[in-house]
Amino acid sequence: MIVVHLSDLHLGHRAFSRSDRGQNVREQDLARAFQRAVEVTLEVGPDLVLVSGDVFDRPDPPPGALVALTRGLEALHSELPGTRVLMVAGARDTPWMDEDSGALAALDSFPNVDAASSRARTVVLSGHSAQVVLLPYRSTLSRPWPAPDPDPRRRWNLVVAHGRVTGADGPGVVLDPDRWDYLALGGLHSFQRVGERAAYAGALERVGPAPWEEAAEEKGFVVADLSTGSLRFQPVPGRPVVAMAPTRVPPGDPAALQSRILEVTREIPGGIEGKIVRIRLAGPLPGDLRGLEPGFLAGLADRALHLSIEFEEDSAPGAPALSVMARALEALDSTDERARAILERILVGEEGGVGP
Asked: Global pTM?
């Protein structure tokens, strides 16, 4: 029994207000990552494909997200007609209202697809002598905590769940990994093995407001051979993300600041073109940005998909208790709207927020 385990697809995720042919570039990135995962899955030829939640980035996904998912499902059905796809909704694609089942429910009508959006359900696959328990996010939110049992009549017993897995006394899904042939878990964006036959597959791309926090992590999915007990992580290439180490610059010297920013961007292999880049600065004052050459920051920001500049907490000692963004904008002329827009686009404050 070969199983492919995908999770946290976040189709429809948008960020950084950059578009290509009318579609947000990051939304395209997530769709491409899913497409690559489907292509590798077709090469693997699994018996089952398990998707453990956050299929969409929100309960009302944009049309492009629905198109990306249905194309992938159609490819799987066309090339692997004997392969079943079993999915659960996650925290991001579960509607607030209990009576609303969300977009994932519509996928239940697809050939060879079982999608649980609200309630727990069990799918019996007689051809594989398998039982698959589907535990969507909503089913894990309240007592009694789900605690399904394997079916001893089946050769294979699996769980697809989005949420926290605990012991008997904790909140969340109560599961003993040793009792199941595979636990396909979702809700973490990083691959994490939690047992011999249990894993969080992680996300296919770096998502969220601070993707540079995952710059060093590979993204992908899990391929498990239940007959041999082997479990391997399959990487999927995505948008390059670069998180630069902190660099110190003397305060009150815009020329040194510009020179240092240029130096660290040139150190990036392959340059910054099309990448998500974070630069961290220690020492300079936010107002030093005003003294940079006209067009310098704009030129860098246009070359990267997204450029973020973060001031370390020890910058500007004694400054008022305002965010870096507020102090930088305060230093600009009120009429300098173009510079203001550039700063709002690239500047990260101490609180970790990202400009629009």
From this structure: 0.88
